[in-house]
Amino acid sequence: MQNKKEKKSLSLYLGKYKFGISMYILIYLVSGACTILQTILFARAIEYITLSLYREAIYTLIFIAGIVILKRLSWYLTHIIYQKYANKIMADLNLDLAKQAFKLNSATYANHESGEFVRRIVNDPETVVLNLSGLVDIITDIITSLVMIVYISTLNIFVGLGVVLVIAVSMIIEAFRRKRNRKNKFIMRRKSDKIYSLTNEIVRSEKDVKSLGLEDKLSEISKEYYADYKKATYNFEIKDTNLFSLRNVIIEICGILILILGVYMIDISLLTVASFMIIYSNNNSLYSFVWSIGRIMDIFLEVKISSDRMFALFNSSDYVCEKFGNVHLDEVKGKIEFRNVEYSYIEYEQIDNEKYLSPKDWKKKKNEKRKVENENKIFDNLSFKIEPNTTVAFVGKSGSGKSTILNLMSKMYEVNGGEVLIDGVNINDLDKETLRDSISLVNQFPYIFDMTIKENLLLAKKDATDEEIESAIEKASLKDFISSLKKGIDSKVGESGIKLSGGQKQRLAIARALLRNSPIIIFDESTSSLDNFAQEDIKHSIDNLKGQSTIVIVAHRLSTIRNVDKIFFLDNGKIEDIGSFDELFENNVKFKNMFYAENLE
User: What is the DSSP string of 224-280?
Assistant: First the structure.
């Protein structure tokens, strides 16, 4: 099978630019070495001054000035290198994550909030790259502080033991703080995802929100989500501040105690004044070292959480990819067959994404088989055939399985048993190119992109000629509308086609499908939300396609399928009757009653 999940990790993306990253680290180490040397020489200069060796102190300070110039030049070069490669790494991550999102099946999208995908594809790569750059900086600070701690510890063994004790206590607090932060940051991310999803829905449903008077209700929901997020953020900040403050108090008090110890050592002649001045001037190194260790833990945590979220799209069993076979058909005629098809809607026990699990518990949870909570059988032994270049329709009351047939036909859903065949080949064996190029779908609410009409059409076929575009527009009954626009085909339609009516969106979607010249075209409830005039336009557009492709229609309004070659009448997941419109109207009471009930004569 194609599209088997490829395991991904951050090292794959960093390894691609290992030369640039190596240069970045090397130059940064030079900068760090300059910082260390600068600090040590400053300590030496202080020692010279206390010993009245002023000329040596001046020479040392001049040498320090040269080191500062080298350090700043190194910093400048690392900044240039970072800007170059950070953007490349982020672009690679964004692109691969977006491509992977296209591979996920429909059930995966149904089971996850849209905010999750936005954060994983857009925000998390930036978080990872920004934190990795800070990582090198923090490591340099740690090395610098550590060198100075070792240096001042060698000046007196008792001072050294005091420093080691302070560091040990601080590390225990930092380890506890990191464990707490992991849980709290997970909760914050989940709350933030919900806000992203709700905001996205509000923006996209602006007309419905206004027309239904939902502003106040959605404002209340938004307020609740933001309150939850603020509460989670507040809890995180308070708990983090408590531990952070405790650690800082310990360090600062112990730093003062170390200075008191130093004064006592001078008094009993175990420490020189020069050594004390060095300890005093570098007393901040202890704080800097512990702070940097805490910061590096935070960075690792941020990178770990963001990396896990990103690469879950590749590695986690919760994000299931579509599967394709290896059979390629050079020419698809458009014959469709369902052979003994079984399909059930299966509801699994939902994982509580709001509940934090430790890494150990999460690994255990992932390996557990998910329990089935509910199974609703839609089809059992469903069989039918559709001949090439014919126009057929599926009708039936709501819940009879009409749209499910189309989803199985286009492999948006996968059968639990039996086979769906195109030109005699099981669609599970067809490669992606054959399957996707063979089928065009026009659904009830087609998505129109924030581009011009022409650009929307060229998405379907980027090398389409003007003649092909004009032909598709005419067959889709879109010509008169486009002619009425000041900029014609170059008019922008707005996000989601907001500047178009429902019928205009449908006709543009039909023109887009026509440009693909697919042997199979599926219309899923394409006229159910349109007025009678728009419905007639769409009906005329579909009639223009008869005999050129296999056309499959799911219809809510029976008057739109009067001219099809064959109608499959569904009831409770079974094909109860097959025939032309007139035959079913004459012989099938349920069909006739449905027609009358809809008042579509």
Answer: HHHHHHHHHHHHHHHHHHHHHHHHHHHHHHHHHHHHHHHHHHHHTTSS-HHHHHHHH
Q: What is the pTM of this model?
A: 0.67
- Minimal CA–CA distance to 201: which of 439, 496, 400? 496
Q: Mean per-residue pLDDT for 212-222?
A: 77
- Structural domain boundaries, residue 271: 10-315
> Is the confidence at residue 154, as pLDDT, over 90?
no
Q: Is the domain of 171 the same as that of 276?
A: yes
Which of 260, 286, 315 delimits the end of a domain?
315
Does 137 reside within a domain? yes
Choose between 242 and 349: higher pLDDT.
242
CATH of residue 179: 1.20.1560.10
User: In this structure, is residue 26 part of a structural domain?
Assistant: yes
Q: In angstroms, rounded to a whole number, what is the distance separating the alpha carbons of residues 141 and 302? A: 19
- Grade residue 426 by pLDDT with cuts at 50, 70 and 90: very high
Cβ distance 289 to 167 under 8 Å? Answer: yes
Q: What is the mean pLDDT of residues 23-48?
A: 82
User: CA-CA distance, 151 to 8, in Å (whole number)?
Assistant: 43
What dihedral angle (degrees, nearest 10) is formed by the CA atoms of 381, 387, 388, 393? -70
What pLDDT sits at residue 387? 92
CA distance 569 to 56: 101
Angle between helices 157-204 and 284-315 (to 10 degrees): 40
Quick one: 524 exposed, middle or buried, by C-beta within 10 A (0-12, 13-18, 19+)? buried
Position 601 pLDDT exceeds 50: no
Look at the chain and report how many structural domains it folds into.
2
Q: What is the pLDDT of residue 201?
A: 72
Domain endpoint, select from 315, 339, 357: 315
Residue position matching structure tokens 């569904």: 570
> Where is pLDDT greater, at 306 or 544?
306
CA quadruple 279, 284, 288, 294: dihedral sign: positive
Closest CA to 112 of 281, 273, 313: 313
Residue 185 CA, distance from chain mean position: 18
CA distance 529 to 525: 8
Residues 251-266, mean pLDDT to the nearest whole number: 83
Do the Cβ atoms of 378 and 304 come closer than 8 Å? no
In a domain, 375, yes or no: no
Q: Tell me, what's the pLDDT at 177?
A: 76
The owner of tokens 């934190």 is: 131
